[in-house]
Design a protein that fits this description.
single chain; 247 residues; alpha+beta; Glutaredoxin; Glutathione S-transferase Yfyf (Class Pi), Chain A, domain 2; 2 domains; four-stranded mixed sheet; 11 helices; 56% helix; 7% strand; binds glutathione
Length: 247
């Protein structure tokens, strides 16, 4: 029995939900409400000591880290597989997933906090937020709540994030030279790793970043058209309000 501990409007959770759906794997859904800081409750920290979502439970085995979860799912539930057989293609896939994990996730985060998370926390004072995140296992992540999710929106933070996202999209545009998917002919875990960010960047209204990238724009449309995309994104009423809602 598979159980996914996740939050609906979390990019890392979306990435694993898409893999579960693409593999047609039945699973129980257990929502961990990040806005209520339920990820910092002792019961959840016992499952995931990093205090983040997602976490996968497969019978008694606990697997954490979205990239590792997707690789685990592909290893264990191999048909269909989304890891290329060719070692060079595998290396390319993993390089792109690493870029998502190490760079894209982090550089878009300040904008998501400024323009989305902040709107969810207006009922809490700065002191209340400080108290809630004081038990976060990652002090840097705790500090992000105080730095970016309180006070008025800081357009400079948003602009800096936008500028740092751009080179990642340029890398994807280059990868898509050999498309239609990021690693060539087949849809892989690399495409799944970026799918949540297509949704996130569209909702942040960062459209001008791909206006001059025709291969990326076409790939984004292909991704959104995939039957797994909308269910992986989750119900509309579970999404944070965002700039696209205001447009
Ligand atoms: N590298 C981790 C990152 C997980 C992560 O940061 N998840 C976010 C949601 S996308 C989270 O739980 N944030 C809550 C927090 O940092 O307090 C993964 O890919 O699973």
């Amino acid at each position: 029995m598979l159980t996914l501990y996740h939050h609906w409007d979390s990019v890392c959770s979306f990435k694993v939900r898409m893999c579960l759906i693409e593999k047609n794997l039945e699973h129980e859904s257990h929502v961990v409400d990040l806005i209520q800081f339920n990820n910092l409750q002792p019961e959840y920290l016992a499952l995931n000591p990093n205090g983040v979502v997602p976490t996968l439970k497969d019978d008694e085995n606990i697997i954490i880290e979205s990239t590792i979860i997707n690789e685990y799912l592909d290893d264990k539930y191999n048909t269909p597989s989304f890891i290329p057989a060719d070692p060079v293609a595998r290396a390319k896939m993993r390089t792109l997933v690493k870029l998502q994990d190490d760079v894209l996730y982090h550089v878009q985060r300040p904008a998501a906090f400024q323009l989305m998370v902040k709107r969810m926390l207006t009922n809490l004072s700065r002191d209340q937020i400080a108290e809630l995140v004081s038990v976060h296992p990652n002090p840097e992540k705790a500090s992000h709540f105080l730095k970016w999710a309180t006070g008025p929106v800081d357009p400079e933070v948003v602009e800096e994030a936008r500028q740092k996202v751009e080179p990642v999209l340029t890398r994807l545009e280059t990868a898509l030279d050999d498309g239609p998917w990021l690693v060539g002919r087949d849809f892989t875990l690399a495409d799944m790793a970026y799918a949540p960010f297509v949704n996130r960047l569209q909702r942040l209204m960062f459209h001008e970043l791909w206006a001059d990238k025709p291969r990326l724009s076409a790939w984004m449309e292909r991704l959104v058209d995939r039957p797994s995309f909308t269910p992986a994104a989750g119900p509309a009423d579970q999404q944070m309000p965002c700039p696209a809602d205001d447009a």
